[in-house]
Every structure is written in structure tokens, then in C-alpha cells.
Design goal:
mainly alpha, 60% helix, single chain
């Protein structure tokens, strides 16, 4: 039985009308949340800075637009509203509440890498993992890692000292150095393996971690590659797969 083209067109129009109605209703519910001017359906996508550093600066700039309490603003990724919170007190109230632990769609992009861990999980799965991990943050256990903290911090200080000498005291951004130091500490304390990220920045594992982080961050701010099909064929799907294979291989070596 053939379906008339007119029926298909009518069904498509009805479907789009329902989506548009839901979007308009959602916008009306959030009308009191401060937000820069946005476009229907497109949101703020048309003005997003292409590079991650520029995008972060853009979000921080939005915080200056609404300094009054509560310090928050709404950013629209297409039809998806995202609440940006700039108040430490508000963030604390959210993080200290174990009832609201459902994660947003952006966390799903971490699942191929991190699986259903504490960062991405919800519900009873999250509570079970939280219960298992909580004892590991006891101060007596953390004290046993002080030597690791000091050793990696010493490497970081030496690198900063060298960089200051080369740049005559002017350093634009120390975030990459802090990230490598953090990676060294996390791997050595949680997995018992040293990756020497600070001293071997060209290792495949370090490059894979940095690469997959950049890919996920860029994907999160680009609605065109949110669907998996578009991401794999038109986005950075191949680079993502390369990074994922290296990271999974390293994890298997640690476990087995």
C-alpha cells in the first residue's frame, strides 16, 4: 500500500508544528531567567565563538551582563536551554543535594570514554558508586599520596620557572600545564600508573586525553554534530575513535 505524498507532507507539518509549540511553551516558562537576545529555534548558536577559549570568554562575559542576584543566565544551544550559574552559593546548593542527580544530555557524550561512572551515572547506580568511592577520600588515605602531590607539584613549579625565563615573566595561560599536572596525579593515585604527562607531552596517551577532551567540548557547543550519525561522518568521529582506542588500551593494561 502506497502512502500519498500529501499525507506524508501533512504529517511532517504537524510534527514540526508540535515541536514549535513545545519550544514556544518552554521559552515562555523560562522568560524570567535573564538571557541575551536569541533567535527562535537557533538560540545563540549563530553567535557562538568557534574556538573553545573564545567560547569560554563569551560565557564569562555573559556573567558580567547580569551581576545581580541570583547570578545566572540562560544560553540556548538551538532549542536546548542551558542554565549558566556564576554564583558559588547556588552551585554549592546543587552539588550538596543528592536528590537532583539526573545528568543532562551533554554528559552522554562522555559515555563512550567514561562509561557509566560517577560523572555520567544517575539514580541508584550513581549512589552505589558514590558509596564505594567515598571512603577513598578519607584524610588518612589522602595523606598517603602527599608524596605524589609534592613530586608532581615540584615538576610543575620547575616548568613554570623555565617558562617564566623564556617569556620574560609574561605567561598567557597556565591551564595546559595545570591539566598535565592533574593528569599525572590522577593516574598515579587512582590507577597506580605514572604516565609522565608533564615530561612526555608527546606520548600517545597524553595526546589522546587532550584530543578527546577537545572533541567532546567542541561537539557540545555544535548542535549540528549532536546526532551520532552526523558526528561520525561529518564531525571528528575518526579522531574520537583513535583517541578512544588508545585510552581503552591503556585502561586494559592497568587492569590486566
Amino acid at each position: 500500500m502506497l502512502i500519498a505524498p500529501q499525507f506524508l507532507l501533512f504529517s511532517f507539518i504537524i510534527f514540526c508544528a508540535i515541536l514549535l509549540y513545545r519550544h514556544i511553551k518552554l521559552r515562555s516558562q523560562l522568560i524570567n531567567v535573564p538571557s541575551p537576545r536569541s533567535w527562535m529555534l537557533f538560540g545563540h548558536v549563530l553567535i557562538i565563538k568557534p574556538d573553545m577559549e573564545g567560547f569560554i570568554d563569551q560565557l564569562m562575559g555573559m556573567a558580567q551582563l547580569y551581576p545581580q542576584h541570583p547570578r545566572m543566565t540562560l544560553f540556548w544551544f538551538g532549542t536546548i536551554p542551558t542554565l549558566m550559574i556564576y554564583s558559588a552559593r547556588l552551585v554549592e546548593s546543587l552539588f550538596s543535594n543528592n536528590n537532583h542527580i539526573n545528568k543532562g544530555m551533554f554528559y552522554d557524550m562522555f559515555r563512550p570514554w567514561l562509561g557509566n561512572g560517577l560523572l555520567t551515572n544517575t539514580g541508584e547506580g550513581w549512589r552505589a558508586r558514590r558509596k564505594l568511592l567515598t571512603p577513598t577520600f578519607h584524610h588518612e588515605i589522602l595523606k598517603s599520596f602527599v608524596n605524589v602531590f609534592n613530586y608532581q607539584a615540584d615538576i610543575l613549579v620547575r616548568k613554570l620557572h623555565t617558562l617564566v625565563g623564556k617569556t620574560e615573566g609574561h605567561i598567557d595561560d597556565i591551564t595546559p600545564l595545570i591539566s598535565l599536572c592533574t593528569l599525572d596525579i590522577i593516574c598515579e593515585t587512582s590507577m597506580g600508573r605514572s604516565v609522565n604527562a608533564q615530561q612526555e607531552e608527546d606520548s600517545d596517551y597524553v595526546k589522546a586525553v587532550l584530543c578527546i577532551n577537545d572533541i567532546i567540548q567542541n561537539r557540545q557547543k555544535n548542535p549540528l554534530v549532536w546526532p551520532d550519525l552526523f558526528f561520525w561522518y561529518f564531525g571528528a568521529g575518526r579522531k574520537h575513535e583513535w583517541s578512544l582506542n588508545i585510552l581503552k588500551s591503556f585502561t586494559r593494561k592497568v587492569i590486566f
